[in-house]
């Protein structure tokens, strides 16, 4: 697989997700199912690394890039990881300009409250996973 | 921002905060909020804005949050420094340890250590959630805020994706304009 295709596929996955692990279904579809350059257990290892390495969980795409194309693949994976974040700058500029409008403030308030509330299931899931590992280790 | 960190301080702070959490970006965002606010570099209103932006930016939330922090303090130079600081150390560790860690994770002691770190991350995420909703839940529009939060969790539990939940929230918020200091 060429590095350009690798970048394109990883970028497609990261650009169409809105969280670190959100890109996983698309990554599996492209690399395991469609192109067959990655096995399911390799993808599982990449995900495990992403979850157990300090830093963003989405960093697992770097491991995917490495497993597919070695060190150049890791660089490509890193580029695919950070590229979508650049979209934050124009979004931030636009929202800051409109932030004084009452309806925009109401909308942002609702997003913040809903976003905060959505963290609850994520925290519960993490804690459950951790407790099950600890329980298995002690049992 | 109330004060502006130097580029070096920005880079170091983001690198230190993002790369000492395990289990996701929400915990890292909470660490950044605490350390930047403590230094007088970040107001609550800017943090809320960055969280909203990071939620609507494709990809990893913590990278978008970091990019926004970088832009607020040093424009494009800050964005580049923030993205490098928040992503490069983890990317290097993942690459170097791609084979090693998958073998070590078979050992129960390592798995339990990782699980303990994950519990800390879960606590940080809860703390982050409370920091976000607290001004609203304790503010003048508390009933609206509690209803919005419950509806968001309910929609998510019903299988609606987070992005769609946030889009619904955005539309919902347009119906309730905020004037003055009412939060």
Describe the sheet with the most strands of chain A: none
Q: What is the count of helical runs of chain B?
A: 8
Order of helices and strands of chain A: HHHHHH
Oligomer: heterodimer
Q: Label the structural class of chain B.
A: mainly alpha
Q: What's the β-strand tally of chain A?
A: 0
User: What is the percentage of strand-forming residues of chain B?
Assistant: under 5%
H and E string of chain B? HHHHHHHH
Gyration radius of chain B (Cα, Å) is 18 Å
Structural class of chain A: mainly alpha
Radius of gyration of chain A: 18 Å
Tally of alpha and pi helices of chain A: 6
Helical fraction of chain A equals over 70%
Average pLDDT taken over every residue of chain A: 84
Principal-axes shape call of chain A: flat
* Major protein interface: A-B, 77 and 98 residues
How many β-strand stretches of chain B? 0
End-to-end CA span of chain B: 20 Å
List the helices and strands and how they pair.
The complex is a heterodimer of chains A (139) and B (183).
Chain A (H helix, E strand, L loop, with lengths): L2 H13 L8 H11 L5 H13 L7 H23 L5 H11 L3 H37 L1
Chain B lengths: L6 H12 L6 H14 L5 H13 L4 H36 L3 H5 L3 H30 L4 H16 L4 H13 L9
Describe what this molecule looks like in 3D.
The complex is a heterodimer of chains A (139) and B (183). Chain A is built from six helices and no strands. Chain A has helices at residues 3-15, 24-34, 40-52, 60-82, 88-98, 102-138. The mean pLDDT of chain A is 84. Chain B folds into two domains: 7-104, no CATH class; 139-175. Helix content of chain B is 76%, strand content 0%. The interface between A and B is large, with 77 and 98 residues.
Distinctive features:
heterodimer, A: 139 residues, mainly alpha, 6 helices, flat, B: 183 residues, 2 domains, 8 helices
């Amino acid at each position: 697989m060429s590095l350009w295709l690798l970048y394109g596929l990883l970028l497609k996955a990261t650009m169409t997700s809105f969280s670190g692990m959100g890109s996983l279904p698309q990554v599996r579809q492209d690399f395991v199912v469609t192109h067959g350059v990655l096995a399911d257990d390799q993808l599982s290892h990449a995900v495990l690394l992403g979850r157990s390495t300090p830093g963003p969980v989405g960093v697992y795409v770097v491991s995917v890039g490495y497993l597919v194309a070695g060190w150049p693949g890791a660089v490509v994976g890193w580029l695919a990881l950070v590229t979508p974040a650049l979209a934050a700058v124009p979004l931030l500029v636009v929202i800051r300009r409109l932030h004084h409008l009452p309806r925009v403030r109401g909308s942002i308030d609702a997003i913040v409250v809903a976003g905060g509330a959505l963290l609850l299931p994520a925290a519960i899931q993490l804690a459950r996973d951790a407790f099950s590992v600890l329980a298995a280790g002690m049992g | 921002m109330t004060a502006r960190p130097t580029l070096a301080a920005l880079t170091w702070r983001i690198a230190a905060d993002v790369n000492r959490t395990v289990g996701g970006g929400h915990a890292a965002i909470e660490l950044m909020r605490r350390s930047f606010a403590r230094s007088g570099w970040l107001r609550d209103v800017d943090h809320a804005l960055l969280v909203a932006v990071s939620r609507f930016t494709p990809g990893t939330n913590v990278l978008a949050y970091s990019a926004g922090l970088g832009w607020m303090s040093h424009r494009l130079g800050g964005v580049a420094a923030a993205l490098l600081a928040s992503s490069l150390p983890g990317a290097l560790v993942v690459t170097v340890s791609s084979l090693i860690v998958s073998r070590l994770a078979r050992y129960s002691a390592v798995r339990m250590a990782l699980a303990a770190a994950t519990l800390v991350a879960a606590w940080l995420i809860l703390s982050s959630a409370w920091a976000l909703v607290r001004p609203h839940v304790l503010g003048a529009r508390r009933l609206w805020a509690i209803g919005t939060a419950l509806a968001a969790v309910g929609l998510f539990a019903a299988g609606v994706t987070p992005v769609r939940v946030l889009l619904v929230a955005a539309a919902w918020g347009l119906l309730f304009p905020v004037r003055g200091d009412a939060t």
